[in-house]
Amino acid sequence: MARTLFDKIWDAHVVQQVKEGPTQLYIDRLYCHEVTSPQAFDGMRARGLKCFRPDRIFCMPDHNIPTHDQDKPIEEPVSKRQVDALDKNALEFGLNYFPIMHPKNGIIHVVGPEQGLSLPGMTIVCGDSHTSTHGAMGAVAFGIGTSEVEMVLASQCILQTKPKSMRITIDGVLSKGVTAKDVALYMMMKMTTSGATGFFVEYAGSAIRSLSMEGRLTLCNLSIEMGARGGMIAPDEVTFEYLKGRAYSPKGEDWDKSVAYWKTLKSEDDAVFDKEVVFDAADIQPMITYGTNPGMGMKITECIPNGDTPSFKKSLDYMGFKEGESLLGKKINYVFLGACTNGRIEDFRMFASIVKGKKKADHVTAWLVPGSWPVKKQIEAEGLEKILNEAGFEVRQPGCSACLAMNDDKIPSGKYAVSTSNRNFEGRQGPGSRTLLASPLVAAAAAITGVITDPRDFM
C-alpha cells in the first residue's frame, strides 16, 4: 500500500503496537525548556531514574528569560525559579544544555533547525505546542504534556495514538507582499482554528515549495493553531542546502548517506490521505487578525465580517472593534517582531526592507527580538542592526519575549499590538492586551506609520 510521508516516518519509529491501545513510538530528539519540564525531572528523581539516552536530549531556557541585561540575575522571582530549576536539572541528569548567554541559546524552536539538531526523518517532541515548527525539516514533530516529557526522559519512547492524515495543497505563485505568515493566517481564516483537529498535515504544492526554509518553519509553526497535531513539508534541495554545514548536521560520508535517505522522504504518488484541501496562491493577500483567536483574520484591505455567535460578539467587544469596520488606519501602540513564528533572520530582513530610510512613529513602542544568538549575530553581520537603529529601533537579546506574558515584555491593558507571534488570545501578551497577528512586513509598516497599513504601499 502506498504510504504518505507521515506514514513512512511513523512506521520507521514504531517499537510496538499496544493491543487495542496506542503505539509505542521511538523519539529521536527531545527538547526541554524551563516551563514544562520541572515536574518531569522531579518524577524521574522520585523514582530514582536516569535519562535513557541523554545525548538525544537538548535543554535551554527561553519563555521566562528577559530580553535585556541577560548577564545580570533574573529579577522576576517565578521566572528565576524556573530557569534555575532547568540549570540544576540539566546538570544533574547530564543533558546537553544551552543556558542564558550561551552562544547557541535562543527559542528552542529556532535553535533546533539552525543548529542542525532537527533533521529530516526524525521524530521530535517538546513540552510545547509549537514543536510542530520542526516538521518543516521533513520530520514528525509534535508537542507533548509534562507527564509525557517524563516518559521520554526515562525511555526515549512515547505512547501515542496515530493521528489521521491531511494534505493541504497550495499551487500557484504568491503575490507581492505575501509571506508564509499570511499563508498560515489565510488557511486559518478559511478552515478555522479547529479545521485540522485530529490530523497531521502535510503541506504541498508549488507555492509551498517556493518558500524559503524560514518560511516553511513559520508555516509549520502555525499548524497547531488550526488544531492539527503537527504539520510537515517533504524535504528537498531547499532543506538540504539549509542544513549543510550546520553544527549538528551529518558530515562527510554521513552527509551523503543522509541526503540519499532524505530524498526518499516524500509521499508516494498514489498515497491516500484521510482529507485533502486545496487553495489557490493567487487568492492570498497580506493578512491581519481582528479577533481573539488566530482564525479570526482577514485580508488587510477587507472589513471585519459579520458574526452572530456570542463568542464572536465577545471577541469584538474585547478588541474594541465593530463588524464591517476596516482596520486600515487604525492607531496601534506596540509592534513585536520575534517569537518562534517570526524571529529568524529572514523576518528581520523583511522588517528592515520596509523601515530602511524611514523613522519609527513616535508613539509606537517596538520590541525587535531575535529568536537566537546566531540570529542576532547575523543581524549585526548583515548591517541590518544599523538600518534598524537609524530608523529608531533597538534589537533586543534573544527570548520568547512578548509572545506570551511570562517575562518582562508585556503589552499593557487596552493597548493594541501588531505582533508577528502565533496567538492573539485574551491576555496572551499581557492582561487586557489587544493583539493583531500579522507578518513582519505588516508589522514594519505599522511601526513607521503608527497605524495599520498595507505593506505593499512601501514595496
Provide keyphrases for this structure:
459 residues; Aconitase, domain 3; Aconitase, Domain 2; 4-stranded parallel sheet; 31% helix; globular
| Oligomeric nature of the chains | single chain
Straight-line N-to-C gap: 49 Å
With strands numbered from the N-terminus, the spatial order across the biggest sheet is 5-4-3-6-7
Into how many domains do the coordinates divide? 3
CATH H-level superfamily title of the largest domain: Aconitase, domain 3
Broad structural category? alpha/beta
- Can you identify the CATH class of the largest domain? Alpha Beta
Query: What's the total count of β strands?
Result: 18
The profile of the biggest β sheet is: 5 strands, parallel
How is this structure best described in words?
The chain is an alpha/beta fold and 459 residues long. The chain has three domains: 5-160, Aconitase, domain 3 (2-Layer Sandwich); 164-235 and 260-283, Aconitase, Domain 2, CATH 3.40.1060; 287-458, 2-Layer Sandwich (Aconitase, domain 3). Helix content is 31%, strand content 16%. It has 16 helices and 18 strands. The chain has helices spanning 5-12, 38-46, 77-92, 108-114, 146-155, 180-191, 206-209, 213-221, 237-243, 252-262, 310-319, 339-342, 345-355, 373-381, 384-390, 440-449; strands spanning 14-17, 23-26, 29-32, 57-59, 96-97, 123-126, 140-143, 157-160, 164-171, 199-204, 230-232, 275-280, 287-289, 297-299, 334-337, 365-368, 416-419, 434-437. Helix 2 (38-46) packs across helix 5 and helix 13 runs parallel beside helix 16. It starts with a helix and ends in a 10-residue tail after the last helix. 52% of the residues are buried.
